[in-house]
Specification:
Chain A: It is found in: Cell membrane. The structure holds two protein chains of two kinds. By secondary structure, chain A is mostly helical. Chain A has 13 helices and no strands. Chain A has two domains: 51 residues; 237 residues, MetI-like (MetI-like fold). Chain A is flat and about 75 Å long. By secondary structure, chain B is mainly alpha-helical. Classes of the chains: A mainly alpha, B mainly alpha. Chains A and B meet through helix 1, helix 3, helix 4, helix 5 and helix 6 of A and helix 1, helix 4, helix 5, helix 6 and helix 10 of B.
């Protein structure tokens, strides 16, 4: 009897402590949970609801329209062009920024005295106010006043209207995107490179694997695999969200050649106030991001197990 | 015989040593040649910005490529930029918005991350799953409903509108939880036995131990929101509330093609604060990127 009484006696304070802990924990998590509801979950619900209506900001009544927003999005030439342009943009920025930043990281990594100087310079675009720099790019690329045109004239090629030629505008924006992304990716690659043990390279040298390219192919590239995958995914997401350069430099032009997905959503939702239609476009945008994010989690998982 | 073979091997070695020195020099040359080409590409807009900002208009519009201006016109351009647009106001707005966002993010995320890492409560796993899902939702997705909500309660064109979507950083919760999980339980138990409340444990014991993660996150959050254009562009139409990117956009729309000197001076003024902070806290920035790795 007494053996049972002892735990009975000590149980209430322990249980009280457990209850207190639960209350404290709930209190700690509550602000975050409320904000999670208010800024993510409820908006997602509203977005889903709007997708099936004809809501416009300031409209008196809202009607259920079923799937008509979705079907009109899929047949909308503007949207299709925006999606295609976005994917083309990603297809240029992704290899460009990943390959160039890998090259820079591998070269910078082995420098001793000049390493920090190169690091600072390549990282400058990441920390600079991008809109300000985009404005400067506009001037750099100016067909008659910019330095690039001046150089091209001097070479006898002549002026090129980078941002007002429909076939050149999107690639030009992509080059600016690469310019902005190289330093960021370089830092990620440098972090990856610093985890590769030095004696591997020494061992390779003894084994007669002396050339830079040999060493890169046999050691650096395979060991850098997880970092590379990670950089590829984050770069795709960043490139897919291209907006700033379009909004500042081209406004989607010339002739719709730089219309991209986020800019289309911005115009539909916040300029034309066709909220319901913009909601559907937002969902399509989210699906693409989710596909990239799932890839990212899979990759991160592999990185951990590696 | 021995000496002969020694001489022979020396003779065979000699060219290869010269060869290897030559090869090292060549590889060094190629390395720096590639890196400097990249440097030229990276620095081109920065240099052009600085040069144009001290050029007089007639030299800007002179199509001849000239690096250094014949006439120093910096004072006029910078004065023009500062008087024709409230540039310092833009910077102050950026500071208010980024500071406000960061403070609330930390106040909300730290206790939640601690609860997720160290406390037991019903729904803990569900909350963590929601946090993970939240990581996949970019700011542009909830923008539309939040905008409608802010319009309904008449809060557009306020600092609050600019900050509210970012008060919750699921990323901060995720990052801090990882950090807190490795914090030794023994110390927490000891603190409890000493009569410390959970509140004190979070802010006085666990938080200081996570300073590297907090600093890294702070840099990440500040840079991201200082440079964000999308959301301010949507909710702010009052020039006096504009953060640097939006302010720059207003200014360049007003001055487009007319006054490149003042425009580049403005760009210099708005780019400088973050760049100067970066030059002084370079390690923190780079740690911030490698630790967070997401943009």
């Amino acid at each position: 009897m007494s053996t049972v009484a002892v735990p009975m006696m000590s149980a209430p304070p322990g249980r009280r402590q457990a209850v207190m802990e639960r209350i404290m924990a709930a209190g700690f998590a509550l602000p975050a949970l409320l904000l999670l509801l208010l800024t993510i979950l409820v908006p997602l619900g509203v977005l889903a609801y709007l997708s099936f209506t004809d809501y416009e900001l300031g409209a008196v009544d809202v009607n259920y329209v079923g799937l008509s927003n979705i079907t009109s999005a899929l047949t909308d030439p503007t949207f299709r062009r925006a999606l295609t342009n976005t994917l083309i943009y990603v297809a240029i920025v992704l290899p460009g920024s990943v390959i160039l930043s890998l090259l820079v990281a591998v070269l910078v990594h082995r420098r001793k005295r000049t390493r920090s100087l190169y690091e600072i310079i390549y990282f400058l675009p990441v920390t600079s106010t991008f809109i300000a720099m985009a404005t400067v790019w506009q001037f750099v690329l100016h067909p008659s006043l910019g330095p690039i045109s001046a150089a091209l004239r001097w070479l006898g090629i002549g002026e090129i209207a980078f941002l007002s030629d429909p076939s050149l505008a999107l690639p030009t924006l992509a080059v600016i995107g690469i310019w902005q992304l190289i330093g960021f990716n370089m830092v990620l690659f440098l972090a990856g490179l610093s985890t590769i043990p030095k004696d591997l390279y020494e061992a390779a040298e003894i084994d007669g694997c002396g050339g830079e390219i040999d060493r890169f192919m046999t050691i650096t590239w395979p060991l850098l695999g997880p970092t590379t995958m990670f950089v590829i995914v984050t770069s795709s997401i960043t490139a897919f969200k291209v907006f700033d350069t379009v909004a500042v430099l081209t406004h989607g032009g010339p002739g719709g050649s730089t219309e991209v997905l986020l800019y289309d959503i911005y115009l539909e939702g916040f300029q034309y106030f066709r909220m319901a239609y913009a909601a559907v476009l937002t969902f399509i945008f989210l699906i693409f991001i989710l596909v990239f994010s799932i890839l990212q989690t899979v990759v991160m998982d592999r990185k951990v197990h590696y | 015989m021995n000496a002969q073979s020694y001489i022979a091997s020396q003779a065979a070695n000699q060219p290869s040593r010269i060869n290897s020195a030559g090869r090292r020099f060549a590889s060094l040359f190629i390395t720096h040649a590639i890196l400097l080409t990249g440097v030229a590409f990276i620095l081109l807009p920065f240099i052009w910005m600085l040069i144009t900002s001290i050029k007089p208009p007639d030299e800007v519009f002179n199509a001849q490529l000239r690096l250094w201006p014949k006439q120093f016109y910096g004072i006029e351009n910078y004065t023009m930029a500062l008087t024709s647009a409230p540039l310092l106001r833009f910077a102050l707005n950026g500071l208010i918005v980024c500071g406000g966002i960061l403070i609330v993010q930390l106040l909300v995320a730290i206790p939640c991350a601690y609860a997720l890492a160290k406390l037991k409560f019903p729904g803990r796993n569900a909350l963590f799953v929601l946090v993970l899902l939240g990581l996949c939702v970019p700011e542009q997705v909830p923008a539309l409903p939040i905008y409608i909500g802010l319009a309904k309660v008449d809060l557009l064109n306020t600092y609050f509108a600019m900050m509210v979507p970012f008060f919750l950083s699921v990323f901060a919760i995720f990052l801090f939880r990882q950090f807190f999980r490795s914090f030794p339980d023994d110390i927490i138990h000891a603190a409890r036995l000493d009569g410390m409340s959970e509140f004190e444990i979070v802010w006085r014991i666990v938080t200081p131990s996570a300073m590297p993660a907090i600093a890294a996150f702070a840099v990440f959050s500040f840079v991201a929101h200082w440079n964000d254009l999308y959301w301010p562009l949507i909710v702010i139409s009052d020039v006096n509330l504009a953060p640097p990117p939006l302010g720059m956009m207003f200014f360049s729309d007003a001055e487009a093609g007319t006054n490149y000197g003042a425009l580049t001076a403005a760009a210099t003024i708005l780019t400088a604060p973050l760049l100067i902070v970066f030059l002084f806290a370079r390690r923190r920035f780079i740690e911030g990127i490698t630790m967070t790795g997401v943009k």
